[in-house]
């Protein structure tokens, strides 16, 4: 190790290259908060505490609707619309990933 480098990076293996990101349905409350901060940053300071208080995990997040956001305490309709759009994008991305995995498994079993 050279001077000034105190962290070890494991070599990349074939398994790490093929690893899929964790599907959002399995996210923890902390992972939802990270997503919320990254994708809804303008609303994070206003509403992140609602998500924490209600322990919104990934499964709950993708199930949120206009009415459930209102019940959480998000009263501004424009903010609810924006959050719903981001949640819908996330849900679509997760569905696309799942369909690709199914296709890959089908290719492997039928080969």
TrEMBL record:
GO terms for cellular component: cytoplasmic side of plasma membrane. InterPro entries: SAM (IPR001660), SAM/pointed_sf (IPR013761), SAM_domain-containing_protein (IPR052268). It comes from the Eukaryota. Residues 27-93 form the SAM domain. GO terms for biological process: cell surface receptor protein tyrosine kinase signaling pathway. Pfam families: SAM_2. This is Protein aveugle-like. The gene is LOC108672134.
